[in-house]
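To illustrate the input format used throughout this study, we show a single complete record. The first block contains the structure-token representation of the backbone; no residue identities are included at this stage. The design step must infer an amino acid for every position from geometry alone.
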């Protein structure tokens, strides 16, 4: 990950993109069903809930604070097509998540559908993240002010709310040590203290991708 080529600080954006990719890898592994019924795991696992929650927060915050503002700024210009492509890619994700949730509770057709939907989600979301990093972030960087970008970050954090103690270690799960240090350096002092003293240890005790106790297929 690198954000040095932008005037706006893209550290947190690139970090959450990699977190989504990490979770897509884990979802694909669960869907293989090597040791457990993948429908039981995903229907009850905290990891699936967190993935959907944080992806929803991220995309709705972009929609509410970034894309609409850029739509106004770019109206009539050649870059509007790229913005519309970003918005269209967002719109493809939610139906896939809903389809997966439906497959998880469909005893008759769900098992056959789940693998296909997981593959579609991987393709769609990874493609969007790559497109955003290749072209979208540069457009954001050239269109928004630092104040507007900071507003996006503030709204994003507000939506995470009291779940920040889980969100931050989830965000940094499996990240390289130097990148963890980079991200922690963006936090206020109390945030680093909480992360190192409480949040990380509590997160490490969670079982994100195992079935909840007492569940069956």
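Output of the design step:
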């Amino acid at each position: 990950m690198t954000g040095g080529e932008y005037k706006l600080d893209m550290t947190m954006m690139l970090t959450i993109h990699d977190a989504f990719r990490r979770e897509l890898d884990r979802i694909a592994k669960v869907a293989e069903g090597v040791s457990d019924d993948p429908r039981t795991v995903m229907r009850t696992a905290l990891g699936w809930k967190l993935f959907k929650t944080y992806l929803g927060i991220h995309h709705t915050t972009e929609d509410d604070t970034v894309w609409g503002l850029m739509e106004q700024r770019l109206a009539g210009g050649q870059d509007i097509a790229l913005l519309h492509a970003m918005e269209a890619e967002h719109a493809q994700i939610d139906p896939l998540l809903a389809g997966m949730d439906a497959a998880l509770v469909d005893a008759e057709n769900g098992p056959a559908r789940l693998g296909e939907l997981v593959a579609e989600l991987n393709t769609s979301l990874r493609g969007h993240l790559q497109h955003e990093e290749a072209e979208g972030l540069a457009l954001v960087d050239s269109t928004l002010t630092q104040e507007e970008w900071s507003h996006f970050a503030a709204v994003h954090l507000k939506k995470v709310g009291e779940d920040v103690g889980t969100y931050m270690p989830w965000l940094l799960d499996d990240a390289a040590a130097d990148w963890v240090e980079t991200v922690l350096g963006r936090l206020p002092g109390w945030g680093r203290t909480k992360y190192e003293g409480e949040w990380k240890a509590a997160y490490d005790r969670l079982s994100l991708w195992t079935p909840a106790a007492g569940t069956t297929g």
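Structural context for interpreting the output: The CA atoms of residues 50 and 167 lie 8 Å apart. The chain has a mean pLDDT of 92.
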